[in-house]
Amino acid sequence: MQLEENTKDSAGDKILLVDDSPQIRCIVHEILALNGFEVTTAENGKVAIDILNNLKPDIIICDVMMPEFDGFQVFNAVQRNLEWSQIPFLFLTAINDKSGIRTAKEMGCDDYIIKPFDPDELLSAVRGKLLNAHRRRASFETQMSTYRKRVIQTLSHEFRTPLVSISTGTELLLEQFENMSPPNIRKLLSAIKKGGHRLQEL
């Protein structure tokens, strides 16, 4: 078991660990911390929600059977919140029956690990979910960067067109006003007015 292997790309990521057992919290915290993760613990679901209001972890590891607010309720609360719904969610539980596992999978959790667990299995699951999350985030940021560039290019073009009509019309009026006929002056003023309206719309 390679507990001190903390050179992974995911090292330093924040993990929220939710479990009502002090022993389990201590053991899992130690495993994760020794591998370079920043771990925040919560003894039940209500405390976990309070923590999420102030801290956005990179992944959530949560027990299922807990008093007051169980793991399924925590998961549902996370999924209902747009700021939290993209956080990978991993159940770590002693429930080993098919119905419990099926319920967790149908809800859309990212993984389901049974206690007692293999520390290497837990670390592999955490790193895998974090890697996928980082990839999704990088892809999203790339798409957003491309979108921003397109928006800037489009706005630049859209602003330039009415500005050209305004500046050109104004220059002609200033330079040739005395030699212009009233109809031509009216046309230029109309073009300037349209350009101003277009800028207002933009």
Describe the 3D structure.
- It is a single chain.
- Residues 1-8 have low confidence and may be disordered.
- This protein is an alpha/beta fold and 202 residues long.
- The chain has a 5-stranded parallel beta sheet, with helices on both faces.
- 59% of the residues lie in helices and 11% in strands.
- It has helices at residues 22-34, 45-52, 71-80, 98-107, 119-176, 182-201, and strands at 14-18, 38-42, 59-62, 89-93, 111-114.
- The protein is rod-shaped and about 95 Å long.
- The protein contains 6 helices and 5 strands; from the N terminus they run βαβαβαβαβαα.
- Helix 1 (22-34) links the parallel strand 1 and strand 2 (38-42).
Defining key terms:
5 strands; 6 helices; five-stranded parallel sheet; disordered N terminus; alpha/beta; 59% helix; rod-shaped; 202 residues
How do the strands and helices of this protein lay out in sequence?
Blueprint: E1 14-18, H1 22-34, E2 38-42, H2 45-52, E3 59-62, H3 71-80, E4 89-93, H4 98-107, E5 111-114, H5 119-176, H6 182-201
Parallel strand pairs: 1-2, 1-3, 3-4, 4-5
Helix pairs in contact: 2-3, 5-6
